[in-house]
Amino acid sequence: MMKNGVAIDALTVVRGGNTVLDDVTLEIPAGQVTGLLGPSGCGKSTLMRTVVGVQRITSGTVTVFGEAAGSAALRSRIGYVTQAPSVYDDLTVAENLEFFASVLGVPKARVDSCLALVDLTSYADRVVARLSGGQRSRVSLAVALLGEPQLIVLDEPTVGLDPVLRQDLWQTFHRLADDGAAVFVSSHVMDEANRCDRLVLMREGRVIADDTPSALLASTGADDIESAFLDLVGGAA
Amino acid sequence: MNARITFAVARRVLIQLRRDRRTLAMLIVLPCVIMTLLWWMFTDRPGPGFSALAPALLALIPFIVMFLVTSVTTLRERTSGTLERLLAMPMGKGDFLLGYAIAFGVVAAIQSALAVAVSTWFLDLNVAGPVWVLMVVAVADAVLGSALGLFVSAFAQTEFQAVQFMPALVIPQILLCGLFVHRDELPGFLHGVSDVLPLSYAVDAMNAVTGSTDPAVLGDLSVIVGFALAALVLGALTLRRRTA
Ligand SMILES: Nc1ncnc2c1ncn2[C@@H]1O[C@H](COP(=O)(O)OP(=O)(O)O)[C@@H](O)[C@H]1O
Ligand SMILES: [Mg+2]
To answer: Is the shortest distance between the CB of A44 and ligand 1 below 6 Å?
Structure first.
């Protein structure tokens, strides 16, 4: 059992009559950035929701830091960024962060450092409704970082961001992992794969590969992750 | 439950309301305008028209307004993902519910204070009993409206659906609360129905305060508070940490 990471064992989730996750077994270790890649609709968000403990599970187990996912003791140790930015549109950036900071019980100084982390310091007093889509998802990301979580679950956090900022954010994710956190990031853009320490490829609710990017390329003989994915899918068919 | 989190929720809801000028106007100015309209309607008629109806209206307004505002606000919280995020944080359901109840209770107190002030100073409403009791009833009413609004927001997918609960849940109560026909004079069955509707007790309590120097409102008030608590418990059941 993983004391400082996430262990998912034989996890099956049925949503609205469809089997969305089918017998998924997976580990997300601390100190690494684990990428979850797969086409839209393959079950990435659902898998992340089970890790955070907000998804009803049909069978199997999800264990975080040795405890069942969703248990009360874990709630202050996990940072979660949902796919759609979940912040208050009618509050300013700073008001959003200050609210979540007092819910988490972290000092107000964290608000400033998290704003700097996502490069939004100069937008602190702007109402969220008047931000661009990318800026809004950065506010959502800043909220997830407030509590200095040991597990960070990020559902497609870099969608719609410009390349420079995307690079910055990936550096931030690695810095958090270097500090000992388990970072779990999903994406449907295959070219982000090389930025991960480990890759989990998913298709139609199943894990089809789980390895380092270079090992994946070596085993499939492909030039990039996208072709490796296609090779694996072709091999499975 | 945690006081820090509860007050953080209340404070945040109040900041959101303050930023929304139009809703704020609806909450604060509209009740005064409606009381004035009611008074104006009866100015050319003999008899106690305004004084007879004003207490019931002072009970209805906070209930209706808070029902609407809360059902839409909490529906937004459910659909925007902020509720999911909060429930994944160390926040108790009680903190969330009580935070909302405190915020809307504060707004209701301000709202009723203004409506009562306008009614008594400018519109010649006679309040025989203590005015503060009138406000306590109004705040209880508002919390009741909030609690019900929060509960029904679980059964709506869109804001449009949420506001449709208003006529369904509120208009029958307005008809049966004693405003149009005294509750004692209703047909037996309808009288029985009005006995289990919370707004009837709110109107009874308001009438008692305006009509008597030493009003006995404790019974009515406990019924309103009981309904509000029951609605809050039902509301808590609709806040699920884990969803399908
Ligand atoms: N609330 C829901 N109820 C029922 N089915 C859902 C719900 N949300 C998503 N699904 C279904 O679950 C599958 C996986 O969705 P999701 O986990 O969001 O995939 P991804 O994040 O990889 O795009 C999809 O087929 C989707 O239609
Ligand atoms: Mg998704």
So the answer is: yes
